[in-house]
Amino acid sequence: MKPPWPNAFADGDVEKWIRDFELIASCNGIKWSAHMVIALGALLTGRARAAYELNLESNRALDCENLKSALVAEFSKYGDCDEPVLRCGAQPN
Questions:
Q1: Helices (H), the chain
Q2: Which domain holds residue 45?
Q3: Among 33, 83, 84, 93, which residue has the fewest nearby CB atoms (within 10 Å)?
């Protein structure tokens, strides 16, 4: 029995999602390759999919490390702060 693929990713902890994806792919006997990148791309939506497509247009998405870096960079733009007001640009009291 093969483990199921992770849920589609749109937003949240991209590094955790990538780790889960890599573990599940490994359990399914898939190593990082163009096939893995295509499978990962199929599970991306929203901002994550947009980052994937931008890298695909420049042929960078076919390189696993470039793709992972692009996804992490996209979701690091807004910082790791848990406070919504800080992400919106409001000043804390």
A1: 14-27, 34-42, 46-57, 64-76, 84-87
A2: 14-87
A3: 93
pTM of the model: 0.70
For residue 33, the surrounding DSSP H or E stretch is none
Kindly state whether residue 36 falls inside one of the protein's structural domains.
yes
Q: Is 66 exposed, middle or buried (0-12, 13-18, 19+ CB in 10 A)?
A: middle
Bridge partner residues of 44 (DSSP): 9
d(CA 93, CA 91): 7
Asked if the structure places residue 1 within a domain, the reply is no
Report the SS3 class of residue 44.
strand
**For residues 74 and 48, is the Cβ–Cβ distance under 8 A?**
yes
Q: For residue range 4-38, what is the model confidence (pLDDT) as tens digits?
A: 778 889 888 999 999 998 888 888 887 767 778 88
